[in-house]
From TrEMBL:
<feature type="binding site">
    <location>
        <position position="11"/>
    </location>
    <ligand>
        <name>NADPH</name>
    </ligand>
</feature>
<comment type="similarity">
    <text>Belongs to the NAD-dependent glycerol-3-phosphate dehydrogenase family.</text>
</comment>
<dbReference type="InterPro" id="IPR011128">
    <property type="entry name" value="G3P_DH_NAD-dep_N"/>
</dbReference>
<dbReference type="InterPro" id="IPR036291">
    <property type="entry name" value="NAD(P)-bd_dom_sf"/>
</dbReference>
<feature type="binding site">
    <location>
        <position position="231"/>
    </location>
    <ligand>
        <name>sn-glycerol 3-phosphate</name>
    </ligand>
</feature>
<keyword id="KW-0963">Cytoplasm</keyword>
<feature type="active site" description="Proton acceptor">
    <location>
        <position position="178"/>
    </location>
</feature>
<feature type="binding site">
    <location>
        <position position="242"/>
    </location>
    <ligand>
        <name>sn-glycerol 3-phosphate</name>
    </ligand>
</feature>
<protein>
    <recommendedName>
        <fullName>Glycerol-3-phosphate dehydrogenase [NAD(P)+]</fullName>
        <ecNumber>1.1.1.94</ecNumber>
    </recommendedName>
</protein>
<feature type="binding site">
    <location>
        <position position="30"/>
    </location>
    <ligand>
        <name>NADPH</name>
    </ligand>
</feature>
<dbReference type="InterPro" id="IPR006109">
    <property type="entry name" value="G3P_DH_NAD-dep_C"/>
</dbReference>
<keyword id="KW-0547">Nucleotide-binding</keyword>
<comment type="function">
    <text>Catalyzes the reduction of the glycolytic intermediate dihydroxyacetone phosphate (DHAP) to sn-glycerol 3-phosphate (G3P), the key precursor for phospholipid synthesis.</text>
</comment>
<feature type="binding site">
    <location>
        <position position="125"/>
    </location>
    <ligand>
        <name>sn-glycerol 3-phosphate</name>
    </ligand>
</feature>
<feature type="binding site">
    <location>
        <position position="263"/>
    </location>
    <ligand>
        <name>NADPH</name>
    </ligand>
</feature>
<keyword id="KW-0521">NADP</keyword>
<feature type="binding site">
    <location>
        <position position="127"/>
    </location>
    <ligand>
        <name>NADPH</name>
    </ligand>
</feature>
Length: 313
């Protein structure tokens, strides 16, 4: 089955490069004036197996479409182009929760494309690493086992290893929620609170992730896998993470490039609203939502988290 990637950002381009090891891949983007070298991945030239196009109708002739679009842009894209996406295998790579609907990408896809086979590709990965051919392992979540096995074979390469799971909810929420905790970890380091405080934020943040995800039906072991703990570890400890760098800037009181997409900021707001609706306690997510909107100071956030009632772990 032919493969196309919709979204020519850094991650979509990196996936196109990696998957082209298995055969021809089409990469679609609204702006492809850069030709064979995406400025978001400097120094990396697209292989000949990758065809770049701005023609969405042509790109969607492929049977398998990877939706490499920002989480907050996915809903509008689906609604606008629903007629081109029906009866396809649609694989979302978005890591976020829609602010309007308070749902993940798979639910948005299912509502607009009810006949599509839906999967989620997520896990610890930086676009630059994938594009350079560095070994990477990801989670492929799909409720239909035969489709999951076919996609696993289709998208895995000698340096891109996919593990499959039927737990779409867990994989999707792990990828979304870790961005929120990565912002918090960045704040801790930017404010000079130290590595011990970062370890505490990662650990308690993971507890929040698991609390929400399992409440919504996810398997705890999914959160402990690549799409949860694995991705959380990566994004909370590397400056390659945009969410971590955004948090660092908040912690230092510095401005952050407004042109840079920070999925965790919007997701923090969505998570906070969802947690309130469900009656769940998610103090780190709530603080990240306030900090990212200028509704609290770093000092206030630290005091709030450190003076909460003492309890068992």
């Amino acid at each position: 089955m032919s493969v196309a990637i919709l979204g020519a950002g850094a991650f979509g381009t990196a996936l196109a490069i990696a998957i082209s090891a298995n055969g021809p891949v089409t990469l679609w983007g609204r702006d492809i004036s850069w030709g064979r070298e995406n400025p978001r991945l400097p120094g990396i030239t697209l292989p000949d197996q990758v065809t770049v196009t701005a023609d969405l109708q042509a790109a969607t002739q492929a049977g398998t479409l990877l939706l490499a679009l920002p989480a907050q842009a996915l809903g509008a894209f689906l609604s606008e182009h629903a007629d081109l996406l029906q009866d396809k295998w649609l694989v979302s790579t978005a890591k976020g929760i829609d602010l309007t609907r308070l749902t993940g990408p798979s639910t948005l896809i299912a509502e607009v494309c009810p006949k599509a086979t839906i999967a989620v590709l997520t896990g610890p990965s930086f676009a630059a690493d994938i594009a350079r051919g560095l070994p990477t392992a990801l989670t492929l979540a799909c409720a239909e086992d035969r489709a999951a096995q076919a996609l696993q074979q289709m998208l895995s390469t000698p340096v891109l290893r996919l593990y499959r799971t039927p737990d779409v909810t867990g994989a999707e929420l792990g990828g979304a929620l870790k961005n929120v905790i990565a912002i918090a970890a960045g704040v801790v380091i930017g404010a000079g609170f130290g590595d011990s405080a970062r370890a505490a934020i990662i650990t308690r943040g993971f507890a929040e992730m698991t609390r929400l995800a399992t409440h919504l039906g996810a398997r705890p072991e999914t959160l402990a896998g690549l799409s949860g703990l694995g991705d959380l570890t990566l994004t909370c400890t590397s400056v390659q993470s945009r969410n971590f760098r955004f948090g660092q800037a908040l912690g230092k009181g510095e401005d952050f490039d407004p042109a840079t997409t920070v999925e965790g900021a919007a997701t923090a707001r969505a998570v906070t609203a969802l947690a309130e609706k469900l009656g769940l306690d998610m103090p780190i997510a709530a603080m990240v939502a306030k900090l990212s909107q200028g509704g609290a100071s770093v000092e206030h956030a630290a005091e709030y988290l450190m003076t909460r009632p003492l309890k068992e772990e």
